[in-house]
Amino acid sequence: MLEDTNGWSQSVWMDTADIPQYPPLPHDAQADVCVIGAGIAGLTCAYLLAREGRRVIVIDAIGIGAGETGRTTAHCFPPDEWYAGIEQRFGVDGAREVADSYATATALIETVARLEHIDCQFERLDGYLFVRPDSHFRDLGAEAEAALRAGVQAELLDRVPGLSFDTGPCVRYRHQAQFHPLKYLSGLAHAIVRHGGRLHGHTLATAINDHGGIKRVRTSSGTVIARDVVVATHTPFNDRVVMHTKQAAYRTYVVGLRVPRGAVPRILLWDTGDPYYYVRLHSSDADSADELLIVGGADHKTGQDEHPGHRYDAIERWTRERFPMAAEVAYRWSGEVMEPADGLAYLGADAGGEPHVQVITGDSGNGMTHCTIGAIMATHAIMGRPVRWRDLYDPARPVLRGIGEFVSEQVNTLAQYASWVSGGEVENAAEIPHGEGAILRDGMRKLAVYRDTDGALHAVSAACTHLGCVVHWNAAERSWDCPCHGSRFGTDGQVLHGPAVSALAPIDEPPFGLAKPPEKPRDTHSVRSMSSRTE
What we know:
The longest helix is centred in the first third of the chain and has 34 residues, at 82-115. A hairpin with a 7-residue loop joins strand 13 and strand 14 (290-301). The protein has a domain at 12-72 and 182-245 and 343-408: FAD/NAD(P)-binding domain (3-Layer(bba) Sandwich). The protein is of the alpha+beta class. The chain contains ten helices and 24 strands. The radius of gyration is 23 Å and the shape is globular.
């Protein structure tokens, strides 16, 4: 079971996978390639390079799968923008390249799982897109035609077959896939070690410096010297501004409900609402009488909903209206996705022109696919081979194709800095309940104050160490989240998610006083996962 992660909630994947643990980097080290990040992007790249004979070191601030890979719903499905949207922005040839890259990535996951005997429950199955009545997206026929032009096996149907409710018209995409992401990562990690690679957890990368064409990756416990570096940290920490104007961080929420085995067809399902919902099944035990119906959605900008529990409730309502056989809620968790301005991931050479640095980011809602594509591309670049899809996913490409989204996100980001001139959320720390946090104003500064479940107060600076935005409390994950660029910090101020690399500044002798805390409430509403942790 994965305990050491970047949030409080726990996914079904964390609860049902045996994840290998690796020690911190003990001292300075040398390698051909340093891969930063031990999620699916980093481990896939390290695996491919190690198989080619490259000496690889993988470092991660927490550990294997402890970032966003453990919080995905782990499906391989068409792009969030759909093929009609991709074709409109990138043309027919661009849509064909997207379809080709998606098919290649899905096939690679399937092949690696087979070759390395990874029991990750990889499964090919069909996916369906249907229209919600409140959606602006209406022309499913145009989407089916665009998918066909892109080379995808797609067709327009009257409804999704086998469901207990009538979806109305839908597009069926053949031969999509799903799998258990952390079991896959566990298998990759073992394979990397067998091929001579090294992995180190609890090793936070803080900078990448160039010395005569050789990279020096500075970390919390030593320096890795390598010719090539792959930044697979979900969002790049080595680029302070440029990439963070091209993409925006969103929280997404997932609910897992028990359903009788066989009551729901084994398909992938996606609607066209805003926010949209997506559905898959997971079967942990072939002999079990039930399965887990996994439903996600209800996205919002990171750091811009301090008490997002209502989003779990919205997903549960949506699910029970359509799947009346759903029983108790077994899991609730959330994750973070990076939404690129034009709908395609940023995969390839560093946008700042830094040689021998590859970046994998901008996953949108297709992290398993985009990250695998990025790993393939980075491997080809490092091996000196032609890089397929290079121009399509180029991190340095202009945002002209997504200029509307780009402008909207920049306006939203700039508006967050107004928090510096407002008051605090509470006037006294005594107002903060057990297990909650709030922002207090102290003269010209703002403090992020958390009261733990025993009543003790913990205070850090509320200024994000990336670009100075005021962090906000996230009650679902018990973290401090930046509403500007998606950095996240624990209640002790330590970094959980970049682009920040430095902890929130500690507060010495906090001036807010230790007023008597409110009476500790009884916990009567938490939803438990199979583990002992609660949301």
